[in-house]
Amino acid sequence: MNIKKSIAQFLIAATLLSSAKAQQDPEQVDFNQVGKEMAKMLMNRHMEQLKFDEELSSKIFRLLIKQLDAQQMFLTQEDIAKLEKNYGNNIHRSLLLQKSTAVAEACHELYAKRVKERVDFAQDYLQKTEFSFDSDRTLKRAGKLKVANPNYFTEWPKDQSAAKELWKAMVEEAVLAETLRRDNIARMAQEQGKENPYKSDKSVKKIISLRYERILKAVLDEDSEDVANYLLSSVALAYGPHTDYFSAREYDRFKAGMDNKFVGIGAQLKAEDDGATKITGIVVGGPAAKQGELQLNDRIVGVDHLNDGNMIDIMFMGIEKVVDKIRGPEGSTVGLKIQRDNGETLIIEIKRGSIEMNDEFAKGEIIESKTADGNTQRLGYIKLPSFYVNFQTGENKCSDDVKNILERMIKEKIDGLVFDLRGNGGGSLEEVRVMTGLFTGRGPVVQEKDYMGKISTQNAFSNAIYKGPMVCLIDKSSASASEILAGALQDYNRALVVGASSTFGKGTVQQTMNIARMLPFNASGRDRAGFLKPTIRKFYRVAGSSTQNKGVESDIVLPNIYDALEIGEKHLDFALPHDVIRKADGFKPKDRSRLFLKDLKGLSLKRINQSNDFKYLQEDIDRMKVKFDENQILLNKVKRLEEITESDMRTKARNLERIKRFKIMQDTDQENLTFKRLNREDVSKPKLTVFDPSEEDQSYMTKAKDKIQDLDTTPEWPSLMDPVKREGLNIVADLIKLTDRAKAANAKNAKARPL
User: Fold this and answer.
1) How would residue 16 be classed by pLDDT, with cut points 50, 70 and 90?
2) Distance of alpha carbon 169 from its chain centroid, rounded?
3) pTM above 0.85, yes or no
4) 314 CB contacts (<8 Å, ≥6 apart)?
5) CB-neighbour burial class of residue 95 (10 A; exposed 0-12, middle 13-18, buried 19+)
6) How many CB atoms lie within 10 A of CB 423?
7) Which residues are bridge partners to 459 per DSSP?
8) Which pLDDT tens digit goes with each residue over 612-660?
9) How would residue 201 be classed by pLDDT, with cut points 50, 70 and 90?
């Protein structure tokens, strides 16, 4: 997966503002020198020994255009042809001759110029046009061609005239979509007897105008580090989708995300259309909560990073940069300029502190149920969001958290376990090696092959602590370290893999390298040179197959919306191929017949066929595939209303059915199931806390009420167990039953043998 993008999204969602030294104007970095050293590092350290030639330059150039204008809406084919003529085949020389900055600046300058022209045109067209929405015109979504496709650049408008026509359609679609959205919300509010959230809001055109203003502001705010980042990231990505360049500020965010520990104010932020940054959550016991003045729905419009009276206007600033302005050293103070709905404006000073992202640590539950014979069955459930660890201190190890939770589950005498890796994009390779051993015991966990073809094996050196029946849940966003764990569990026949058709398919290993170490000690801005993450090895399952491109395929496939989308390694640019090597020495799988796969598939399929929720999901998947293939957005209001009406009727019918059924399921759950919380802070408690999972947990963060979300009448899953989680628990319960039956049969046969 794109780890840089994943970490950025994670930080924006949490916005708990990682630690950094006090922000001052940094010393200017010589990115020409950085580019040269990075090029040498790639040639020497990347496992794919690509020629540093014109062919590579062409790949870099194509990726640079994609980095700048991924949605194909600012540049034109004429623009690209001009840039390609000047730079397309010479970027490799520019890097080695320390002239790459000129390439980055020239491409970004034209890009920024076009962004301003497009936004200015859009603003003028928006204000002067009265839209009728009665044409049969359509708008294509961003092109699906891969960068390597010879026709890739045909995705952009041909010239300035074609660009204007594209933007006319884009502006019309933006106004139509927002109009329909507001009309739909107003209708839902009226049906439910609630106030329309947009009753006193800005007009549709004003909101669209503000969005364009934010786009332009974000581009104009880009500094030399951002400009260099576009090019250097493209150079790295030409070697493969997971080789990457991190600017200094991006690497700060990456480290903080891996540790799940932050220094900041303890608040969740959201970018608003009007340019402000809104407080949507406050961490319980965090710095902002202790200070007491900051409130939910407060709007931040200015930041005084050093609290020295120098208030910086952050209106329309990208949220990542707002985070960078707010963050700082532990114990220091930041000033925030706040606006409230009542018109009050005030300055709030908050002392930064350390916050642990409790929501991002491993979580456990024990689910107790009564069996037909009157006994109690205990099923363990562990959700692992990522393979986190503090690389510098060795603290906050996910393997320690999972081990402690498992040991308490064993003490509580669980009969089976569901380990949930859905949404887990990976993390520490060392952590997954240790964690796999908790289930498989001593032996090989994963194999690695370097650019010379040398194969090495990573082993687990501890005895297994959990040996009972087990199911591992995966989806298309389970990647990297998740695939190592799921693949090892499957190869050893230690667990059934259940979920989407396969995992993501990232089977490569990257090494983080500090570019500053390659620069002269007195080089300008040396500490902000950034980091390179070249792919140095591929990893392979102990049975010999790489997860690269192919991923780990589920033993039991459940309908999954991701299977309708182009998600996975095989859809990325310049992805390495899948291959197979020999089995790892010492690999001794368990008897696969002990997993009773045929029986479990049959039992699961029967439940899936009887499940309305999986039926609805499959219908949505089929519908989404058609839409994805059509790749057309209608600009006709009547036809769009027909689509909305059809969708609304379908949703209402489903909700009516679900409300009745979910009520019965919830009542049955409350009668038959007991849920005990078992997170990292619970493992040493004398008695585990019984909780109701259907009640929202705000013990970690209090969140603002969303009036629009409140209009959604779709009922919550009973006991907050989505269909995949519930089916995973059903499968492991079946596995327990079949295992016990086999043990009883074996014991009976043993007694019947003559002496």
Assistant:
1) very low
2) 30
3) yes
4) 277, 300, 301, 302, 303, 321, 322, 325
5) buried
6) 17
7) 444
8) 999 999 999 999 999 888 888 999 999 999 999 999 999 999 999 999 9
9) confident
CB atoms within 10 A of CB 150: 7
Where do you find CATH 3.90.226.10 in the chain?
Answer: 359-509+535-594+658-701+711-742
Helix (H) or strand (E) holding 169: helix 160-191
* C-alpha–C-alpha distance, residues 713 and 192, integer Å: 9
Superfamily of domain 359-509+535-594+658-701+711-742 in the CATH hierarchy: 2-enoyl-CoA Hydratase; Chain A, domain 1 (3.90.226.10)
Return the residue matching tokens 């001593």: 442
pLDDT confidence tier of residue 753, bands split at 50, 70 and 90: low
Region at 426 (left for phi over 0; alpha for psi -120 to 50; beta for the rest): left
Q: What does the alpha-carbon distance between residue 229 and residue 238 come to, in Å, rounded to a whole number?
A: 14
- CA 551 to CA 483: how far, in whole Å? 7
For tokens 């995300």, what's the residue?
Answer: 257
Distance (Å, rounded) from C-alpha 269 to C-alpha 299? 9
Instruction: Let me know: does 581 contact 449? Beta carbons within 8 Å.
Output: yes
Amino acid found at 706? D
Q: Which two tokens stand for residue 155?
A: 């995705």
> Tokens standing for 128?
């002067």
261-356, CATH topology level: Pdz3 Domain (2.30.42)
* Concatenated DSSP letters of 70-105: TTS-S--HHHHHHHIIIIITTHHHHHHTT-HHHHHH
HEC string of 174-192? HHHHHHHHHHHHHHHHHHC
Could you tell me where in the chain the CATH 2.30.42.10 domains are found?
261-356
